[in-house]
Structures are given as structure tokens and as C-alpha cells.
Amino acid sequence: APSTETCHLDELNADQRRAAEHGPGPLLVIAGAGSGKTKTIVHRVVRLIETGVDPRRILLLTFSRRAAAEIARRVEQMAARLMGQQSIVVADALAGSGTFHAVGARLLREFAEEIGLDPSFTIHDREDSADLMNIARHELGYDKTETRFPTKGACLAIYSRVVNAEANIKDVLARAFPQYLGWVDELPKLFGAYVESKQAQGVLDYDDLLLYWARMMEEPSFAAAIAERYDHILVDEYQDTNLLQATILKALKPDGRGLAVVGDDAQSIYAFRAATVRNILDFPGGFDPPATVVTLARNYRSTQPILSAANAVIGLAPERFTKDLWTERKSGDLPRLVTVPDETAQAHYVADKILEGREAGTPLISQAVLFRTAHHSGPLEVEMVRRNIPFRKFGGLKFLDAAHVRDVLAVLRWVQNPRDRLAGFRALQLMRGVGPKAAASVLDLTAGFTGMAGLEGHVPPARAAEDWPAFLELVGRLSGHGAGWPTDMELVRTWYEPHLERLHEDAQPRLADLRQLEQIAAGFASREQFLTDLTLDPPDAVSDEAGVPRRDDDYVILSTIHSAKGQEYKRVFVLNAVDGCIPSDLGVGCSDDLEEERRLLYVAMTRAKDSLHLVMPHRFYVTQQAKAGDRHLFAARTRFIPKAILPLFESRAWAPAPPPDAAPKPRPAGKVDLGAKMRGMWR
Ligand code: ATP
Ligand code: MG
Predict the structure, then answer these.
(1) What pLDDT does 392 receive?
(2) I need a surface site. Which of 208, 264, 329, 409 has the fewest CB within 10 A?
(3) Is the Cβ atom of 566 under 6 angstroms away from ligand 1?
(4) Average pLDDT for consecutive 10-residue bins of the chain (683 residues)?
(5) Residue among 461, 469, 415, 410 nearest 437 (CA)
(6) Quick one: CA dihedral 183, 189, 193, 196, positive or negative?
């Protein structure tokens, strides 16, 4: 009888198995979509644990918290089957895994004192970061320049690129923002001011989590202390890491022993955030002896017709390392290319097909609609609500983006870090009678080392007198270690409720959101952990204002293509497969960007297992960046599906059925002069 040890590895093919059983030397698994890369990671982790590696000494780095949790769940399940009780340890141990950013945040907090950070630092999301950048921009007078100085968003994007790609400003501008090259001497001044204000306020932005981590690893004693913790580090979706992340890995595992990374260069879709496909291509040669490379050739996800079409799309890319895959799932429908008149019709079509799919036995949860940008699903969402089809949206408007949620978090963040001006600014102005000026003077009081104690004896503006005592009491209870978690959350919500009712007409759904936030909060051990995790990997907006049921077990997935990475669904619908959308107008600036758009379509297509519909609205609303202003466009099929590969698709036109012809209504044969009759009444 086979021993239990070989049992789970029997699920793998020979190449996957080689990767799962590979010894400690550096390992790269590079292969196309659906070839079992993630599955191989799961089995490798189980294998490591079986051979006696302490699961606490295994670090899994993935692209999202969701992905990390999914791998940990599968490892746990398998381990439970194989090893019984021990699995509890496994689950706990792997809980330390997650995204690079989350792991970085944890390490920085742990070593804060030693590296000169305030241990209660708060983290700015992109919106806060852009706002802080804007303040610096304003203070230096760059918002008044005559020639166009980059917007706050552009400033942040440039800054972020410089940091993540470890590049100099001039190269970044030349490559990605040539229109701003004229500001090459001013931008460093702005970025310097931005960094200083972050430090003064004890806040870190996303990029800092990697940057500080990487710089910390340059100190030998820190590097030794941190590297010593992990015997094995496994990274999924390695094609979407940036140079800083590669630097961190190299510092953790200089000789590559215990390092295993998996990815697919054809699915690299985060260059706009400075990810570089060079990481995966240069990985093997980065070690001496070089890393073992395992490639996988068989696809287990999709039918041959879907795979062939996806292969054809990516086959037109000028450069690619991974090879075409084959599958044993030979039969299946050709992927469909469906032309519809406009986006409304597109929504009708997709809703129709989803319901047909359900009738035919595919639950909603196995059907997904993918799109380039979050707002593209708008018309479809309306249609889904109208037809009562529950859905959940990923990668769009985050829960965190809602004003009321940001309000509550601002209060929590400010008491966590009284120097965090953006948080305080927002929190204070929730009160009646506190405007920007009054808020700013309060913030000056809490910026010092006394923190919230600085508020004692402060006399607020007369108009704020009514709200001030309750606020002071709240802040008092939350300061320092607070009232305990999640009690703090409840205190803030209770305090906020009357303000919310005053500030928003639609208070009810917002209150429901806050109660949901409270439930999420209860899942965290501390205020600090809650704030960190929520900022780094915010939960997606689950509710829809129109009132779609939240906790249905069967719902359609609506997702941006970026957020669907690594996922698979039986039926996949891709919206707006037209030029101007995929590729987007923004994406055709240079050929690198164009290639990224092609890979994006490839990622979308390869999510499908059984059926794939690419929908092309003939009239498509686009933002013409170049010409400024929005307009309707008569759209053409995406250039990534040229005529030559059309035979791999089934092309169709579809339009909603016109309303049934009005049946002729019976009409009287004769005529009557009612006017004469009316007059006759008075004669
Ligand atoms: P992506 O590039 O999209 O992230 P991937 O390479 O990580 O894909 P997985 O998600 O691991 O691929 O696997 C795709 C599907 O194929 C999953 O449903 C998985 O269970 C299945 N699969 C992978 N390998 C095997 C195998 N050896 N036997 C049976 N099914 C397999
Ligand atoms: Mg995967």
C-alpha cells in the first residue's frame, strides 16, 4: 500500500511533483495559466511539513490576503487529512503569510524602535498619500505654476515608480511620463518635502512598507535576525513583483536556498505599479549555482477551444518565455465574440446568458464577469439589480472608499497616531462648528510628544461647544491602549451615529455598512492590526446601494481583470472587448504598455474553464485622455483579436428583442361630431 506520504503527491503530474519534492536549492516554476502552479505550491508546503519543516518557519508570499488565505486553507485541509491534529498548528503558523506589504508592515512595527520609527505609525492608502503629496505641492507653490506641473496623482505615481523600481527620476520620467520631463529638477524637492511630512506625522505610505523593509535588510544584524526566521519562502505570481521585492527576497535568501517562486511571464499585468517581468526571467541566473527551473506544459483548467484562442492571442506578443499549453479537455464550444449595439445591450446579453447558465446547471458562483476598469460594470450592475441576480464585486469601489467608513477609520487612526494630520483633520471636522482652521489648530496641539493629552484645556470655537465634550470623552477613552478591541470600534460608531444622520440623507444603508465594519473589526486582535490590514488589503464593497442581498451563498462574481488573477470560473464573460478599452486609450502610449494590455486580455480569457464570451458593444463610452473630454466612440473589435485568429472564435451579433409589435386595436367605423353635441346641450 502506498504510504500516506506519497498520497497527496499522486495528484500531481511528473513535472509538478518534481517541483513539489525539489530540495532546498532555489526553484523557479514558470508556466502558463492553469498549469497548476498554485496547486504545486500547496503540495510543496504540505510536503515540507511532512518532512519535518516547522510550519512557522515557512513564509508564503502572495498577491492578496485572499490568495494567501486560500493557499493556507488548502494546505490545512490536506494536512488535516494526512496528519490529523497537527493541522491546527499548520493553520496558525501560516497565518503569518500574506502580501509583501502586510508582512513588511508587521516587521516594521516589530522593529520600529530599532529603526527610528514610531511603533504606532499609521499607514496611508493611495488616496491619503495623494492628498499629502498635494499639500506638499501646494506649500511649495507648484500648484500655481504656469506650465503644467504634474497633478497630485501623477506626482504620486512618479514617486512610487522611482521608489519601487529603484530608478532615478529622470529615467522614470523619460520612460513613463515624458510630458513632465521639464520638471526633473523640481520633483526631487517635492518628494523631499513629502518624505519629511510623512516622517513628521509618523505615517508610512504603501511604498514605504517595502522601502523600509528593503533598507532594513541592508543592515547585517537586522538581515540576520529576520532571515533566520524562515527556512522556506514561497512566492506565487512572481511575475508581478517589483525590484524592491526582489531585493528583499535576495536579502532574505542570498544563496537562494529555501526559496521557491512560481509565475508566468505572459500574465505580468502590474508594470504600471513598477512590477517587472525581469524578476522572473532573471531569477535562475541570480544564484550560483543557478536555480532549478521547472516548466509545466499541461493545462488542467480550460477546454481546448478556449486554450487555443488564448494561446493565439498571446502568441502574437513579440516576446514571451512560457510555452503554449495543451489540455486533455478536447471538446467544448468555441469562445464567443458577441457584437451588441451598446453597453445597455451588453448588460442584457450578459444577464440573459448568466440566467441561462444557471438554468442549465451552472450556479451563479461559478460564473464571472470580468472588465478592464471598475466602473465598466455600472450598466450591468443596474441590470442585475433589476433582475434580482445577486452579485459580488471584486476590485472595484472598496468598502474603505465610502465616506462614512473613512470617517470612522479616521477617528481610530488619529487616536492611534495623534500626529497623523490627515486622519485628525477629517475626524475633527465631523463636528459642527469645526472647520479647516479650527481643526488645524487642534492638530498643532496633538502633534507634540504629549499626543492627545495636548487637548486638555483647549477651548474650541464657540459653535463647536455643543459637540466638543462628547468628542473629548471619546478621545479620552480611546487614547493609549483604548477601551479594548473591538469595543473601541463600537464607541466610535455610537459617537458617530448622530453626526452621520446629520451629514447624510441616506443614513440607514450607511449605518448598516458600519455595523458590517464592526463585524469585520471583531475578527481582528487589536485596533492596530485592524487598521493595518484594512488599509493594506481592504475588503471589497460587498453591499450594493441598490440593495442586492449581501449574504447570498449563490452570487455572480463581478471583477476587474486584475483582481481575478489566479482565479478560475466555469463561465466567463469579458466586457468591452473593444479597442479603447482593451487596450485602453491610456494604455497605448508606448509599446510596453500595449503589450501589458495584451497580457491582460490573456489573463481574462484564461480564467474560463468551460465557456467564454467576449462582448463588444458597438457604441462604447470612452474617456479620450489625449483629446480631453468624454465622448461616445464607435468601437472596433480589440486589435488583439485580428482577422487571422478570428476562426478560433464564434462570431455573433446580438440585440435585445424589440418590444412585441402593438396589435392593431379595433377602431369605430363611423364618425361623430361631439362638439356639435356639446353646443346642442345649450340650445
Ligand atoms: P494561474 O496561472 O491562472 O494562476 P495556475 O498555474 O496557478 O494558474 P492552478 O490554479 O494551480 O493553476 O490550477 C488550475 C486548475 O487545474 C485547478 O483547478 C487545479 O486544481 C487543476 N489542476 C492542476 N494540476 C492538476 C493535476 N495534476 N491534476 C488535476 N487537476 C489539476
Ligand atoms: Mg495560480
Answers:
(1) 87
(2) 329
(3) yes
(4) 64 97 96 97 94 91 87 88 69 78 94 93 92 93 81 93 92 91 94 95 95 96 94 96 95 96 95 90 94 96 97 92 89 96 94 96 96 88 90 73 89 94 95 91 86 84 90 91 90 94 87 85 88 78 41 83 95 94 72 89 98 92 48 78 96 85 80 88 83
(5) 461
(6) positive
| Ligand 1 atom nearest 603 alpha carbon | 3
Residue with cell 490576503: 65
pLDDT at 620: 73
**CB atoms closer than 10 angstroms to residue 116:** 9
CB crowding 368-404: b at 16 or more within 10 Å, else e: bbbbbbbebbebbbebbbeeebbbbbbbbebbbebeb
SS (HEC) of 17-42: HHHHHCCCCCEEEEECCCCCHHHHHH
pLDDT at residue number 6: 52
Residue nearest (by alpha carbon) to ligand 1 atom 13: 36
Beta bridge partners of 275: 242
Determine the distance from the C-alpha atom of residue 611 to the mean position of all C-alpha atoms in its chain, rounded to a whole number. Answer: 25
Half-sphere CA count of 148, side-chain side, radius 13 A: 10
Report how far residue 333's alpha carbon sits from residue 62's, in angstroms, rounded to the nearest whole number: 33
Q: Contact 617/343 with Cβ under 8 angstroms? A: yes
Work out the angle at residue 520's Cα, subtended by the Cα atoms of residues 519 and 526, and round it to the nearest 5 degrees. 105
- For the annotated binding site for ATP, the residues are 31-38
pTM for the model stands at 0.87
Distance 247 CA to ligand 2 centre (A): 23
